[in-house]
Amino acid sequence: MKNISQILVIEDEAANREAIALLLGNAGYQVTTAETGEKALEILSKTPFEVILTDLFLPGVSGIEILKRVKEQWPFTNVILITGKGSAESAVEAMKEGAFDYITKPLHFEKLQVIIAKALEKSQLVAENLYLRQQLRGKYRFDNIIGNSLPMQYVFSRMEKILNTDSTILILGESGTGKELVAKAIHYNGHRREKPFVAINCGAIPAELLESELFGHVRGAFTGAVSDKAGKFQQAHQGTIFLDEIGTMPLHLQMKLLRVLQEQEVEKVGSSKKIKLDVRVISATNCNLEEEVEQGRFRADLYYRLNVIPIALPPLRERREDIALLARHFLQKTCTEMKRPIVSITPGAMTCLENYHWPGNVRELENVIERTVTLTDGAAIGKSDLPANISGSSCEDEEPQISCPRLTESGLDMPQVIAGIERCLIKSAMELSGGVKARAADLLNIKRTTLVEKIKRLDL
């Protein structure tokens, strides 16, 4: 069922007010009326409206004052002003204050209907845009980047410190570690969140087209340039541009990029006109840029300009304690998207996932989980459900086996044997957790305080 559009009519002349309300009501709108600006503000405090139609000159609170208040408190609402023939200057002032449009007396109802229809369309677009931005901010919240490991906590700490700065950022990490996810999280949690986030993969675009994609071109700049085109930098004005695989950029474009970063202005291909920019630059690479500089394939001055604040994302094999968290997250996500009951992962299968070296990092893990859930009919994922390269010899059995010391007639020192087993298990847990005692305690299914006591007692 389609929602009925809400319109507030503010008019001090009763005959005009009633006539407008009647006509709009017959046109299918839900109309509320107010005879003064004060009454209108009282109504607005309780009820939202998509469009307000108000006389410019009202006793007490004027139409201009209502307009200003609406723009401050109800940004979705569009205001249309009713003006007299001799108030053109006031109408211009109103447009500068953000009025959607104005209509002069005597009212032409068909013209008014057209203006209202356009105002409603704009209100709906603004509301949808805000909703999408809220969805994006929710999607890229920090807590949607999974990781309790020490390396990831360091990454989160650095991200928090740079959110509301405009410093240039260089994200380093292997393919699949989540570099674009981190870039989006920084943008959508920072002060530029309402402005564009524009991403471009410098390695996916042919060198001869990359300059035009980045900086734009004017008509006739080259064969096929049939009209002017804004580049990615211009599209990202006041927002953030994300330059992925920056290490693949050709040397001749590196020089132009350096000038853009230094001058905060861009020239389109085929033009000498400079366009001022306000853009935050976040770049990313999976190669060693220092080595590229030494080999002469990347400009040193550009590297230093990009590498103001580096963020190094660890490969998944260096944060194994996060694998279980990530696997369960992707499992729930995939099952929800497929509209099927949430399946579990057996301990043996989880061991396989944790022991695998993950050359494709988090992206590979997500793909494996999605593929496995798709091809598995049961309520749990076991070793046999995993790809052969993951369920291979590196996996332990479904139920871990603990070797039992051989007991002979001469007996044994049971406390000493148990202490040896504890020492061995604690050392393994500390290695797997990267020295994080809380995580090691979780792996051993004991309290952290108990683990600390055992470490002291066993002199580890």
Keywords:
single chain; extended; 18 helices; 460 residues
Structure characterization notes:
This protein is of the alpha/beta class. The chain contains 18 helices and 16 strands. The protein has helices at 14-26, 37-44, 63-73, 88-96, 109-139, 150-162, 179-188, 207-215, 232-235, 251-263, 289-294, 300-306, 323-337, 347-355, 361-375, 414-432, 437-444, 448-457, and strands at 6-10, 30-34, 51-55, 78-83, 101-104, 169-172, 197-201, 216-217, 229-230, 240-244, 265-267, 274-276, 280-285, 309-312, 344-345, 380-381. The chain has a 5-stranded parallel sheet with strand order 2-1-3-4-5, sandwiched between helices. Helix 17 (437-444) packs across helix 18 (448-457). The longest helix is centred in the N-terminal third of the chain and has 31 residues, at 109-139. It is extended. The model is unreliable at 396-401 (pLDDT under 50).
Quote the beta fraction: 5-15%
Helix content: 40-55%
State the shape.
Answer: extended
How many strand segments? 16
- The value of Rg in angstroms is 32 Å
Going by helix content, strand content and strand pairing, the class is alpha/beta
Main sheet: strands, sense, barrel? 5 strands, parallel
Question: Kindly, what is the distance between the CA atoms of the first and last residues, rounded to a whole number of angstroms?
Answer: 69 Å
Mean pLDDT: 85
Number of helices: 18
Oligomerization status of the protein chains: single chain
Strand order of the largest sheet: 2-1-3-4-5
Q: Provide the low-confidence segments as ranges.
A: 396-401
